[in-house]
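Page 42, continued from yesterday. The earlier attempt failed because a stray header line got pasted into the input along with the sequence. Redoing it now with the clean sequence only.
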Amino acid sequence: MAIISKLAHVGTTIFTVMSKLAAECGAINLSQGFPDFPIDGRLSALVDAAMKAGHNQYAPMPGLPSLREAISDKIQRLYGFRYDPDTEVTVASGGTQAIFTAIGAVVHPGDEVIIVDPAYDCYSPTVELFGGKPVHVRLGIDMKFDADAVKAAITPKTRMLMINTPHNPAGTILRDADMKRIAGMLRGTDIILLSDEVYEHLVFDGEPHASAINYPELRDRAFVIFSFGKVFHTTGWKMGYAVAPKTLMSEFRKVHQFNVFSVNTPMQHALATYMNEPLSYEAVPSFYQAKRDRFSTGMVKSRFKLLPCEGSYFQTADYSEISLEDDMTFAQRVTREFGVATIPLSPFYKEPPSEQRLLRFCFAKQDATLDAAIEKLCRI
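This time it went through. Structure tokens are written below.
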């Protein structure tokens, strides 16, 4: 039987490849972005209680009302704006599913979608699946947002601009000036903004998170995507949510209902209760900043040159003083010969810069894991 692939150029994700290699080599896994420490026992107990209380059947399609209410309360507390929990908030099966659904809801065949490379690897394939055309621009050489490059990429066919802050894999953040530039370049257009903010609470050094929600011109045209997994160390739960104006959310839900329909019920009950305590997310920045600092301090003795990490739980490092190998070859060699798995940055680009020599390390790990990895990396 002949099958014409819709994603003929797409293979297994780099996360799967490197985690598999780490397991085969018994290497410390600083590649795929997930914690290796336990979640809050109270959150586990809340899930257990919800299951025992019989909350094991389908939840409402947009999410439990109590969880949507808690999400609206949290956003109002943090950003001073309240989304209508009935019509503007939808619980999703993780941030990736929310991104997939938002793109599927509004991107038509032939529409152009601007993607800023290096970009999370689901962006471009999802645009292609729905018949859109990815238009790739790059961050600057300092891994900061290049507003001029983005503006130059806008055409009459542009349907969506995708942004990500804090940025995976670069670890940089968008600031107030960046968001105002974006608002200016979208003003007077029908371009939809997709703001991927799954690392909203992982912003360091006292910097505020410049959410699209803070900017009315952006908020009124944006899907904003969040993740419970990134905040509460529960990536395996695949729980997230999207917020958007009613007109956009109505289209989002049309796709959502035929994609996953509804999301894990007992976990929604648990999260609705857990989120009522702001400390559950307020402590996250300092928690991860300490891990960033532990990793960066330990790596001072290494031959890697660490780039500034302003947010997320990823540290990007330049290895050009160690090797001129391409990043995939070098990452695999480090895994096999030195016992630490990382992620090369080239898979996050449509056309990676030929001179670039960068790896991404995940520091969402126990201190003992980080210390052991640092010791190995300093031997290189």
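Notes: Residues 58-280 form a domain with the Aspartate Aminotransferase; domain 2 fold (CATH 3.40.640.10).
Reminder to self: strip header lines before submitting.
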